[in-house]
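Regression check, zinc ion case 506:
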Amino acid sequence: MTASIHSFGLDGLHCFDVTVEVDASQGLPAFDIVGLADVAIKESKERVRAAMRNSDTQFPMKRIIVNLSPADVPKNGAVYDLPILVGLLAASGQLAAVSRRAAFMGQLSLDGRVLPVHGALPMVRHAARAGFDAVFLPKDNLDEVKYVPGIALLPVGSVRDLLRHLKGEKRIPPAAAAQYRSSETHYDVDFSEVMGQQPARRALEIAAAGGHNVLMIGPPGSGKSMLAKRFVTILPDLSFEEAMECTELYSVARKLPDGGLIRRRPFRSPHHSASLAAICGGGTPPRPGEISLAHNGVLFLDEFPQFSSTLLEALRQPLEDREITVSRASASVTFPANISLLAAMNPCPCGFFGHPTKKCTCSPAAIRRYLQKISGPVLDRIDLHIDVPAVPYEHISSTETAERSADIKARVNKARAVQRERYKGRGFSKNADLTPAAVKEFCMPDAMGDSLLRRQFEADALSARGYARVLKVARTVADLAGSDAVTGEHVLEALHFRSVLRKYSL
Ligand SMILES: Nc1ncnc2c1ncn2[C@@H]1O[C@H](COP(=O)(O)OP(=O)(O)OP(=O)(O)O)[C@@H](O)[C@H]1O
Ligand SMILES: [Mg+2]
Ligand SMILES: [Zn+2]
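Current build output:
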């Protein structure tokens, strides 16, 4: 007798249907799994056998063959324990036919408990899109998937619970669909704690409003790391769709925090000693790296020149394409990486080059070598360059409190709303994401702005990419000012943020 049970497979974030076919025939008892299964799946034989024995069911003494169809696509993980077990019971007549409108996923422990799987969210979202009526999934995956609309979610704690349900003895109640609310995000840090640094605050507000990349440069202790940590506090709350995208990535990266859903904009700050694979993604099967875990949020690279030049060059492609392709001998997978890059650095190895009072002890050659680690193409992709000088005593000792994050965020939200409305139905929602054609359509400045840009371009101070990037920033400056038109004034401010580093001859 044969049985077919529906389940799913993952290739990166891409989910596909898998049919678990089980055939139990007369002959010498045997148990084989075919269909490009990895080691974890092959081992599921032992888990399924023990879980059945410990759940008052009979492991059929037959010749059993399990085929994971489509047979020519690699599959991995322990997702198929539960569908294999259900298929075995159906194929051996211990269970009436199972609905073809339902899908199953779950790992088994030897005592028959159903354990959570990685990547549950992309699979359940796929199940809903593919039109399944119900999905049986591990109870501990429920927090992650309970916001997915349009499908009955049946959380399973153990094989016994599942069997009672399938035999109609005791129903598992479908989980109530949860309503997503972007959390009332509370942060432990606030912009009101940062004294002075007005130009840097302004630049970060622009970066938040348009989703642009930022490089901060300044001496030790001037507040660069402090500013970076507060950057997320002025970013708009995550929309439902964005929260789903982030959670899917964390789910397949096996980095999902307790509570399931990612509700806050990610802020990832990998150390400069982190490997290329940790930052860009890697492994078998390929998993997302820090740059994808920062998707829809911020990737903060502190001590920027300390990162290997291989890594800095590897960032060029994702910064442009807003996604990253992880290539392995066996497969290549693309993960989203729509990030705001926030980088911080000192102007020289000792940190005091250009400092008003302290003396820099580095040789000119050492300074050049240090700064040259940030290559032109990388720098060209960073829209806003900010000088973060040492804070003067009057600022640090001032008793006035600076503006709170909430007030800055209100302006950012307003500017983002304008952008969402303007770009409705176009596949992007913020100025940083504009395609070259969209730049031409939405960002063209007035005559004064145009002549400012021409002068910079003809003086070789601006590349073709730089030109488009300046226009996007100018668009954001205009949006913050509530202006429909991009004027010379907006272009001037955008250009200013590209010229700051000349003082360090960068
Ligand atoms: N503008 C500021 N307002 C208030 N406190 C500040 C400011 N700048 C620096 N500080 C204080 O100095 C500490 C160090 O600042 P921070 O770590 O941000 O410096 P940094 O610029 O990142 O230095 P480094 O280059 O050494 O990494 C902060 O934790 C804070 O207490
Ligand atoms: Mg720092
Ligand atoms: Zn120095």
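Comparison notes: The chain has a mean pLDDT of 92. Residues 405-422 form the longest helix (18 residues). No diff flagged against the previous build.
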